[in-house]
Amino acid sequence: MDGTPGAAGWGPGEAASRQVAGMEAALERHAEQLEGIRRHALSVSLLSWESPAGAAFRAYLTERCTELSRTIDLLDAAAGELHVYGGHLLEAEALQGQAGP
Question: What pTM was computed for the model?
Fold first, then answer.
């Protein structure tokens, strides 16, 4: 199972809390991947660029790094909200299990 809705292992019989946990993990994974890209772009932007085109490229990379940082923050926030939601679902599933069919 890869944590993606519709992937093998996801179905109507699976607990909603597991589906939410899978979505949370996917968001965290995407945020980590984007952070790697951001770090690489930042390292390139720190190189010495001596031409006007090089300076423009450096400015471009700096802007993209800022945008990536915002996107990473949003993904992290969404994963955090899913974590809270998943906790509520776990509690509801436990209460439902105690109540019986």
Answer: 0.78
